[in-house]
Specification:
Chain lengths: ~350, ~325
């Protein structure tokens, strides 16, 4: 095993501040018993900062609200409540096309499916040129040079050769690199990566993680890394937020959260990760099901149905997210101040 | 394992796809066996031939795939040479399969219970009532409320649908269940619950499992022995813990080094450079040589064969054991 310590970064002020982000969707099946609309609470009261040169991971199971957070930050959705501050400006309710376009150039997304996001009949060069032209990043005569630089910076070399290829001539990992090069073209300050490796083959996943790690430092990008793979979050993230049923249940520096998980859900999640050292038999888990879809939730902890530590008060009131150690927040009545 | 007869023995299996681009040899002379009650894992990157091998064992290869070499013995009987109908009948009684993305394979307009009844009645003479009783028992075994026999698939979550599929695979009391990525689409917590259930059932009912996945860390936990496939070939096979502690083949080492860990010191990991070869035009000699940090130019010309380097530990790599010469077979397939 090749070992080389990952460098430690010094924190800068945040570029993006998310406060009380909330997104509700009307539930299907029309209106409820008293003629009221029913609502899916996809995201409730989520707050965090994104800082240049840092990776923040958002982890949680399917349906916990991760992608909805990302779509709100990319302003594909207008949040139901809360604020998104970008470079000190409130972008929560931006509506004008031009403003949104400008905003989205600086806050770019990387998607799960690198194939779906590329046009099969266009070359790699075409994909990377486009944003350079639309946003007038460099003079026309420098575009080709810049395309090659970008391809090299994501590890696609010889760049000249890759520039001429079509998406179907690339492997999954190479396609994801093209998608990343395209987002870098506009020199974004924030990158929102929604499960960027989950559709890639095991052997190439780590290369994309290493690339993200390198880019955050070399380009001082603030990364939001969405994943359900908590080990990969440990690998590249500085901070981690654990989501369950639309809420953050635990958040803090990655090492604090993963070495000393406090919330019963975080503990369940960690104990479920395959661990070749241990074997199945020695550490049975009691998970009892899946993340519920949250429709008009009662005042109660959303984890009660699956929680091994559930107490009476958990069923009658909602715990608050409270600081238990410096910078380490938990939403659970097992801890003071909740 | 004792020196009992193997339940399944795969001998020199070759499967070719006849595609417009030429012959794609998806499974290239693989051999292995599975003992009664044993869990054998099959791991490797996407496209290395895992599902194709499973389909060949079940005798359900479809055009343009063809089994062009090899024999498959089940309890000593050569099943691949049986006439198709006899093979099918034999298979239903002894082997079942959980297909890749099976979760979406349930019939959406049939209640869960009726799907059980249809399947059981297609192979055994039982009344609907008895078949439904069996369905309830099986659902209970995989952790689903027996009342759910009357549910439609869309009323169940992904994890519950996958449990139903596993229960159906158990319905005819097979001696071998082939599971192709049975939990890959599921969240880790649900995945672990289902694996625990399979393990418990397996201990109780003593069926053997061929478990296919690309997730090596999961396999190490779950199986007794593991075979690693690369570009159509088995390049290493060993007991799970031994493979984990002492992987020999550089590809296995690379795979092991592709997963960030949740424990231990944080260090940079490198994975495996490059990507798997095009099977329509594989590299000569060792297929892994273009990605291998160890192989010398001379050695890349020669095809290493799988050989036992320690008891029960098989490796196909020039770094271990005696030098290999090109066999006639290899020389002709490599051209
Ligand atoms: N546009 C929408 N309309 C209605 N409900 C939605 C919409 N988008 C998301 N939801 C619901 O909100 C919840 C959160 O979904 P989201 O896609 O954010 O989860 P996720 O954590 O990204 O899950 P996954 O890991 O499966 O991608 C789910 O219950 C989902 O069904
Ligand atoms: N119909 C086909 N025609 C030509 N080649 C095919 C066909 N189906 C599969 N192949 C090739 O056979 C090889 C083995 O495919 P197979 O589905 O067995 O791989 P796998 O190991 O199960 O992969 P995965 O992990 O993605 O499921 C692949 O390289 C694939 O390209
Ligand atoms: S608040 Fe209660 S139910 Fe919720 S996680 Fe904590 S102990 Fe469990
Ligand atoms: Mg999502
Ligand atoms: Mg497959």
């Amino acid at each position: 095993m090749s070992a080389q310590a990952l460098p430690v970064e010094v924190a800068a002020p945040p570029v993006m501040r998310v406060e009380g982000l909330t997104m509700h969707f009307p539930a299907g099946g029309g209106v409820g018993p008293f003629g009221t609309r029913r609502w899916i609470h996809a995201v409730d009261d989520v707050s965090f900062d994104l800082t240049p040169g840092r990776v923040t991971a958002l982890v949680g199971e399917s349906g916990s609200g991760k992608s909805t957070v990302v779509r709100c930050l990319a302003r594909l959705y207008e949040p139901t409540a809360g604020t998104i501050m970008f470079h000190g400006e409130d972008v929560t309710h931006l509506k004008q096309r031009k403003e949104l376009l400008q905003y989205r150039a600086q806050v770019q997304m990387i998607f799960q499916d690198p194939f779906g996001s590329l046009n099969p009949v266009k070359t790699v060069e075409h994909h990377i040129e486009r944003p350079l032209k639309i946003h007038h990043i460099v003079p026309r005569n420098e575009i080709h040079r810049r395309v090659l630089d970008l391809l090299s910076s994501v590890g696609l070399s010889p760049a000249q050769e890759f520039a001429a290829k079509y998406p179907h001539q690339l492997s999954g990992g190479q396609r994801q690199r093209v998608a990343i090069a395209r987002t870098l073209a506009v020199e974004p300050t924030v990158l929102l990566a929604d499960e960027p490796i989950s559709m890639l083959d095991v052997s190439i996943r780590i290369g994309i993680l290493n690339l993200m790690h390198e880019l955050k430092a070399s380009r001082n990008i603030a990364f939001l890394y969405i994943t359900h793979d908590i080990a990969s979050a440990r690998y590249i993230a500085d901070d981690v937020l654990v989501m369950y049923a639309g809420q953050v249940v635990e958040q803090g520096p990655t090492d604090a959260v993963l070495q000393n998980p406090l919330h019963p859900y975080t503990r369940l999640l960690l104990s479920a990760v395959p661990n070749p050292e241990a074997g199945l038999t020695g550490r049975r888990i009691q998970g009892r099901g899946e993340v519920p879809v949250v429709i008009d939730p009662p005042e109660a902890c959303r984890f009660t149905a699956r929680c091994p530590n559930v107490m009476d008060r958990c069923r009658t009131a909602m715990p608050r997210l409270a600081e238990v150690e410096p910078g380490h927040l938990v939403r659970c009545y097992l801890y003071p101040n909740s | 394992m004792t020196n009992r007869e193997p339940l399944l023995r795969v001998e020199d299996l070759v499967v070719d796809y006849y595609s417009p681009r030429g012959v794609v040899r998806a499974v290239d002379h693989i051999s292995f066996d599975i003992m009664p009650g044993e869990i054998v894992g099959l791991a490797g990157e996407s496209g290395c031939g895992k599902s194709t091998a499973a389909n060949a064992i079940l005798g359900i290869l479809r055009e343009p795939a063809q089994m062009t070499n090899g024999r498959i013995f089940f309890q000593g009987q050569d099943i691949a040479s049986m006439p198709p109908r006899a093979h099918r009948k034999f298979r239903w009684r002894h082997i079942s399969m959980v297909f890749q993305s099976a979760m979406n394979a349930l019939n959406p307009v049939l209640r869960v219970g009726d799907q059980f009844v249809d399947m059981v009645q297609a192979h055994e003479r039982v009344s609907k009532r008895d078949a439904l009783d069996r369905a309830r028992d099986l659902l209970r075994m995989v952790g689903i409320d027996p009342l759910r026999v009357s549910a439609y698939p869309h009323e169940l979550s992904g994890g519950m649908r996958q449990r139903v599929i596993i229960a159906m695979a158990l319905a005819l009391q097979p001696e071998l269940i082939i599971m192709d990525e049975p939990t890959t689409a599921l969240d880790v917590v649900v995945q672990r619950e289902i694996l625990q259930e399979i393990e418990e059932l397996q201990r109780e009912l003593q069926f053997a499992v061929l478990f296919i996945t690309h997730d090596l860390s999961l396999l190490v936990e779950f199986s007794n022995r593991i075979a690693i496939m690369y570009a159509g070939e088995i390049v290493e096979m060993a007991r799970a813990q031994e493979l984990f502690r002492e992987p020999k083949h550089p590809y296995t080492v690379g795979l092991m080094n592709s997963f960030p860990s949740l424990v231990g010191p944080k260090s940079m990991i490198t994975g495996i450079p490059g990507s798997p070869p095009d099977l329509a035009n594989p590299p000569t000699g060792c297929r892994f040589s273009p990605r291998c940090p160890h192989c010398t130019p001379y050695k890349t010309m020669v095809h290493p064969v799988l050989q036992e380097i320690e008891p029960g530990h098989l490796v196909a790599c020039h770094l271990y054991g005696a030098e290999q010469e090109l066999t006639h077979e290899r020389a002709s397939t490599a051209s």
